[in-house]
From TrEMBL:
Similarity annotation: Belongs to the protein kinase superfamily. TKL Ser/Thr protein kinase family. TGFB receptor subfamily.
GO molecular function, one term: ATP binding
Compartments, as annotated in UniProt: Membrane
SUPFAM superfamilies for the chain: Protein kinase-like (PK-like)
Reactions catalysed, as given in the entry: L-seryl-[receptor-protein] + ATP = O-phospho-L-seryl-[receptor-protein] + ADP + H(+); L-threonyl-[receptor-protein] + ATP = O-phospho-L-threonyl-[receptor-protein] + ADP + H(+)
Descriptive protein name: Activin receptor type-1C
Residue ranges occupied by any GS domain in the UniProt entry: 117-146
Topology term for the membrane: Single-pass type I membrane protein
Gene: ACVR1C
Function field: Serine/threonine protein kinase which forms a receptor complex on ligand binding. The receptor complex consists of 2 type II and 2 type I transmembrane serine/threonine kinases. Type II receptors phosphorylate and activate type I receptors which autophosphorylate, then bind and activate SMAD transcriptional regulators, SMAD2 and SMAD3. Receptor for activin AB, activin B, activin E and NODAL.
SMART domains: GS (SM00467), S_TKc (SM00220)
Keywords, sorted A to Z: Apoptosis, ATP-binding, Kinase, Magnesium, Manganese, Membrane, Metal-binding, Nucleotide-binding, Receptor, Serine/threonine-protein kinase, Signal, Transferase, Transmembrane, Transmembrane helix
Source organism of this protein record: Geotrypetes seraphini
Assembly mode: Binds the type 2 receptor protein ACVR2A.
């Protein structure tokens, strides 16, 4: 393919189930050229992009050449115009409607993935029919390289997040610098854990590393949520009690799925997030949440009882760190310790949500947890003094007692914030309690 004016060749092997679920053998004139073959080592061939025809200098053109030069573009323009009108009537996106063709029959147009489905359906299909962990790498790369990046939506510790378009659909592109290659790799790896997909976990689409000659750009492509993070959402909006229950239930559903081990060949390991905070949770169009930023997560191998990466416990965001992380007493040998630390941070996120509820016309302004006890960029020592030494926690206002849902939320928070991490609630317990609030609020009516 042609990338920033440079030719690049990718050779790849694809397993049969992947090949059956996807169609690849397509080329886009002058931008990509694809050949598929089906015997051992048959990809030992050299491909070249078609070179543009070299036109003679106009000084040597005779009347015949001039006629050709004038009439051919006019004809081509007319054909293009007619095709454009047909396309306008028929469809908007060439990826979606073209009929599925057999892989032995390469197509000549620019499409690659050809299932007549949206990105979401495509990923859904792959999660259930393929390895259960995402799209094949070649498809991921091709999707990433056909994205049009449009606007910068945010910046974090590990790079920038952009809104992009793929085939008419919005996608989020997180661009890491080559310095942060390990974070990029780790986040992509975690997102592609078998059976991780869940409506309350950010939908991963693709990872790509693109060398532009000077440096390597590392991309993570995911679903785009226009309301931004929960922090952005709560800063802009006050919410109703029902709105609070919906947000709280969706966050804990995502976290419970992450924490849960599913046993079996298509099972998933237990995962602890280690950086739960309102900036790492996104708000979807329907006002439910998706947990994002899995780059610091750890997986548990329950058979060997091991954690998959060497431990540096102090990796999250200081403001949200559990007391046992701040004073370095966390027992990293036990995987449950990491889940319990997530629960403490979740309690702080719940406090941020609940404050934005209107109770008898009173709505607190949005604030970060411990806003009244530490500075805007607290050090580990600042946090340790407040959380471990003085044993302070965010204030639970009296007016919350006047509303059943807020009373329950306040109680959950307290039970997430115990210094003794083993006394904290589990994600499943919290999910059950908030589900009851959800049923009582009777969302269906
Ligand atoms: N998938 C997405 N859809 C829409 N907006 C997003 C998406 N992912 C991230 N954002 C926006 O981009 C911002 C930056 O995200 P990023 O994860 O890089 O940094 P952060 O969470 O703010 O900080 P940190 O680096 O500590 O995680 C988010 O706060 C959010 O507003
Ligand atoms: Mg983040």
């Amino acid at each position: 393919m042609l990338t920033n004016g440079k030719e690049e060749v990718i050779k790849s092997c694809i397993s049969l189930p992947e090949l059956n679920a996807q169609v690849f053998c397509r080329s886009s004139n002058n931008i990509t050229r694809t050949e598929c073959c089906f015997s051992d080592f048959c990809n030992n061939i050299t491909l070249q992009l078609p070179t543009a025809a070299v036109s003679p200098s106009p000084a040597h053109w005779g009347p015949v050449e001039l006629t050709v030069v004038v009439t051919v573009p006019v004809c081509l323009l007319s054909i293009a115009f007619t095709l454009a009108i047909c396309a306008w009537h028929g469809r908007q996106c060439p990826y979606r409607k073209s009929k599925r063709q057999s892989i032995e029959e390469p197509l000549s147009d620019g499409s690659l993935v050809n299932t007549g489905k949206s990105l979401k359906d495509l990923i859904c299909d792959m999660s259930t029919s393929g390895s259960g962990s995402g799209l094949p790498l070649l498809v991921q790369r091709t999707i990433a390289r056909t994205i049009i990046v449009q606007e910068l939506v945010g910046k974090g510790r590990f790079g920038e997040v952009w809104r992009g378009k793929w085939c008419g659909e919005d996608v989020a592109v997180k661009i890491f610098s080559s310095r942060d290659e390990r974070s990029w790799f780790r986040e992509a790896e975690i997102y592609q854990t078998v059976m991780l997909r869940h409506e309350n976990i950010l939908g991963f689409i693709a990872a790509d590393n693109k060398d532009n000659g000077t440096w390597t750009q590392l991309w993570l492509v995911s679903e785009y949520h226009e309301q931004g993070s929960l922090f952005d959402y709560l800063s802009r909006n006050a919410i109703t009690i029902d709105g609070m229950i919906k947000l709280a239930l969706s966050v804990i559903s995502g976290l419970a799925h992450l924490h849960m081990e599913i046993v079996g060949t298509q099972g998933k390991p237990a995962i602890a997030h280690r950086d739960i905070k309102s900036k790492n949770i996104l708000v979807k169009k329907n006002e439910t949440c998706a947990i994002a930023d899995l780059g610091l997560a750890v997986k548990h191998d329950s058979v060997l009882n091991t954690i998959d990466i060497p431990q540096n416990p102090r990796v999250g965001t200081k403001r949200y760190m559990a007391p046992e992380i701040l004073d370095d007493t966390i027992n990293t040998e036990i995987f449950e310790s990491f889940k319990r630390a997530d629960i403490y941070s979740l309690g702080l996120v719940y406090w941020e949500i609940a404050r934005r509820c209107s109770v008898g016309g009173i709505i607190d302004e949005y604030q970060l947890p411990y806003f009244d006890m530490v500075s805007s960029d607290p050090s580990l020592e600042d946090m340790r003094r407040v959380v471990c030494e003085q044993k302070l926690r965010p204030n639970i206002p009296n007016q919350w007692q006047s509303c059943e849902a807020l009373r329950v939320m306040g109680r959950i928070m307290r039970e997430c914030w115990y210094t003794n991490s083993t006394a904290r609630l589990t994600a499943l317990r919290i999910k059950k309690t908030i589900s009851q609030l959800y049923i009582a609020a009777d969302f269906k009516s």
